[in-house]
Amino acid sequence: MKVSIIGLGLIGGSMAIALKELSIAKTILGVEANEKHALIALEKGLVDEVVSLEEAILKSEFIIIAIPVDEIEKLLPFILDKITKQVVIEVGSIKSGIIEVIKDHPNRKRFVATHPMWGTEYSGPEAAISGAFKGKAVVICDIDKADKDAVEMVKDLYRKLGMQPLYMNADEHDIHVAYVSHISHITSFALANTVLEKEREEDAIFSLASGGFESTVRLAKSNAAMWVPIFMQNRENVLDVLNEHISQLRKFKSCLEKENYNYLQELIEKANRIKNIIK
Amino acid sequence: MKVSIIGLGLIGGSMAIALKELSIAKTILGVEANEKHALIALEKGLVDEVVSLEEAILKSEFIIIAIPVDEIEKLLPFILDKITKQVVIEVGSIKSGIIEVIKDHPNRKRFVATHPMWGTEYSGPEAAISGAFKGKAVVICDIDKADKDAVEMVKDLYRKLGMQPLYMNADEHDIHVAYVSHISHITSFALANTVLEKEREEDAIFSLASGGFESTVRLAKSNAAMWVPIFMQNRENVLDVLNEHISQLRKFKSCLEKENYNYLQELIEKANRIKNIIK
Questions:
Q1: Interface probe, candidates B203, B249, B266, chain A, greatest A C-beta count within 10 A
Q2: What are the DSSP E strand ranges found in chain B?
Q3: What is the ipTM of this complex?
C-alpha cells in the first residue's frame, strides 16, 4: 500500500515507523511544512520521500493527517476536494469540530475520524518511536458516515498496528477525552506553574523531586501549539470537567481549613477506587 | 551492624532489602504491629526476626522508624526513653512536628530526622522492592542538634545506599515537600475524584485512559493511613500551595471562559519551563 502521512511529528512519525516495521506500507510519502522537521524525518528514514501535499494526495491510496487539530480543520476540506477514491483519516485528539466542517462534503464518505490513544509529552519527528501504538486503544468515530470499504481499510490498519478499536460518535469521544486526557494536561500545566511561581529555589525542586512529582508534572512539558487548539475545540467539555476538578480540590482545601480529617480520609479512600479502573 | 526496623511497610521493607543486599546490616530485627505484615516480612526474608519493640531497642545499635508520621510522634519519645547510646532515625515525610515533640528529650542527640525521597503509590511489605533508594536524594534535618557520631553513622548509611544527601532544617524541609510531593498527591486524589464523580462510564475510562491520565492519577492509589497524618502535620504549607494551585487552575478556567487563547498559550509556555528543572 502507498501511504501519505501529512505532518511528521510525534504521531505521524511514530505511525510511519510502525507502517514500515509491520510491512503495512510499501511506500510512505511525507508532507511537512517545517523544513527542519522534514529533514529530520528523511534522515531518520521515517518516510521514503517528502513531497508536496498535491503530489502526496495524487500518489497514495491512504492518507493520514497528523497535524494540530486547528490545522486539520483548515486542511481537511481541501484534501477531500482533491481525492478521487483514496481513504483519508486524521489522528487528532478532538473530533466534533473536524467532523462538522466536512459533514456536507461530497467526498465525506472517504473520510474516517480516528484517535489512537497514545502520545508522550514530546513533539517533533525526533520524538517518534517504534512500537508506539501496540496494545493501546483507538477510537474510530462515526463509522456509519463513511463508505464500508473505507471503514474496513481503517479497521484493518489499526488491527495490524495491534490496537483495540472502540466505536463511538464524535460527541461521545470529545466528552470522554476531556476526562481521560485533557483535564490531566491542565492539572499538570497548573501544577508546574504553581511550583514555578512559589518555589523560587529551583535547585531544591530539582534535587527533591521524586517519582511522584515527576509523574504528575510530566505532561506540563507538552507543546502549546498542539494543546491550545485542542482546548479551544473542546472548550465546553473541558470547562465542565475543570469546574468539577476545582470543586474537588476545594473539598480538600476545606478539610484542611476546618481540620476535618475524617472527611479528608473519606476523600482519599474514595480516590483510591481509581485502583479498580486503572491497574 | 545490628539494625532494627520499626514498621515493615513499603519504606521499612525496601530499606531492609537494601541493608541486606549491600551488607550494611548483618542482622535485621523487625517490629511490626500488623500480624499479617509481620508474616509477609518473614516469608519474604526482609528481616531475620520479628521481635517486640523493647527487644529491638535493646538488641540493636541502629534503629530505623518507618511508620506513619502520626505514629512516629507517639512512639519516638518512648524509644528515646529506652535507648542508651543507640542511634535512632525516622524516615517520615514531614519533620517539624516530630522534631518538636522530642526537642527537650535528654537523648535528643542520638536522633536524626531523615527523609529518603523515594516512594510508590503502593504500601505494605509486599510492595517492598530492591534498589529503591539508589541515586535518589535524602534530606537529613537539623544535624547540628545531634551527636557527631550519630550524624556520621547516618551519613554513612545513606552514602552506602547510594543516596545524595541534602541538609536543611525541619521547617525548610516541610515547605519544599509541600511543593514537590504533597501537592502532587492532592491533585492526583482530586483528579481521581473528578473522574469518578462525573465519568459514570467506567469502561470508557479503562479503555481510553492512556499514559497521560495514568501518570497524573497514579498517586491517587496512595494509602490514606499514611497521607492524612502528613497533611495534618504539614497543614499550613499544604494549604498555602493548594491555594496557589487552585488560583493557577482558575487562570486556565478564565482563559477558556473568555476564549483568551493567547493567554492560554502563555500559561502553557510558562509551564513548559518545568523542562529545565525536571528532565
A1: B249
A2: 2-6, 27-31, 49-50, 62-65, 87-90, 111-116, 137-141, 164-168
A3: 0.89
